[in-house]
Amino acid sequence: MSGKGLKRRLIIGIGNEYRRDDGIGIRIAGLAKIEGFDVMTSMGINPELAETLHGYDTVIFVDASVEGEPVAVRRVTPGNSTLPLFHQITCEGILALTEALYHTCPEAWLLSVRGYDFEHGEGFSCQAEENLMHALKVLKQFISQDG
After folding, report:
1. Burial class (CB in 10 A: 0-12, 13-18, 19+), 137
2. CA pair distance 69, 106, nearest whole angstrom
3. Nearest Cα residue to 66 out of 5, 99, 114
4. What mean pLDDT is predicted for residues 45-63?
5. pTM for the model
6. Taking the chain, what is the end-to-end CA distance rounded to the nearest angstrom?
């Protein structure tokens, strides 16, 4: 550990619980009781999140994806922001905004969990439920490797 003390780490579950599989990030955040991590949920990535992010050393975004692997983890770095369309800010965009406003940016990762049904309603599709359980294991393994 550095002289600054313990690192501040955050898991952010992103999604809409009323759009079926889109709520998977929120559910995972609610189930992820991991020592040393703060947990929060958000309906989406919004500009106000930059204020929260600048106080952390590490952040893990957890969100549903409409395509790709059932579960994937990838590094996220500051990048192009879609600021004119606030409801569509990406992880890269919010990191860029955090860096621009606070001259600091956490190390960031995105845990993507494949969803299949994004219609209005509650509950997950069978496939997304399976992916959710796998994602929890992947998240815990990833964190244990990261230290």
Report:
1. exposed
2. 25
3. 114
4. 95
5. 0.90
6. 11
